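Posted in: Protein Modeling Q&A

I'm a second-year student putting together a small comparison for a lab meeting, and my supervisor asked me to include a predicted structure for Lipid-binding SYLF domain-containing protein. I've never done this before, so apologies if this is the wrong subforum. The sequence is pasted below exactly as I got it from our records. If anyone can share the structure token output, I'd also love a short note on what stands out.
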Amino acid sequence: MIKYVRSMLFIPILLVAAACSTSDNTMSGSASSTSAASSSENSKLDKDARAALQQLLSTNPKATEINDKAVAILVFPDILKAGLIVGAQGGNGVLLSRDGKTLGYYNATALSYGLQAGAQSFGESLFFMSDSALAYLYKSDGWSVGVGPSVVVMDAGTAKSMTTTTLKSDIYAFIFDQKGLMAGLGLQGQKITRLNR
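Accepted answer (user: helix_wrangler)
Welcome! Here is the predicted structure, written out as tokens:
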């Protein structure tokens, strides 16, 4: 019961964090201290994203096959989701080039409605298979997944029927390292926005 109450108290916090995470940090204070904090946050996010991607590739052969053909990978190492009728999820991630260079930092948020209660966390990796799909991400002022490039979520069933010769979609998504009891994970309604840092 205590865990359930804590999860429900977490929902407003997550909603506020998701709303605030995409806004510019223009609060008063020292520019140098803000820059140092951002640099530290970026360094930690880079490390977490690379570790999460390595974990996915070491445990999922299909992800490794797709990774070898991708032009870039957007990795969200830790997305938090909580809900009670209205749900919210959010987390920050790193866009990595084929050779592992950091191309930018992004935020993913989503709201959902329906019968849901509880909280969970999970990792998410989006493999961009074409330069045009990557260009769409760059030019979007907040990309709503489902609009623009085609996205295929690689669940166990999809992965079995997929071969490297049938990779025709723009983006392949893997959801992994799920912790918590909520069900129905997906990318519906997710909005991905570049962070200015």
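A couple of things worth pointing out for your meeting: The first helix runs from residue 2 to 21. The helical segments are 2-21, 31-59, 61-67, 131-139, 156-161.
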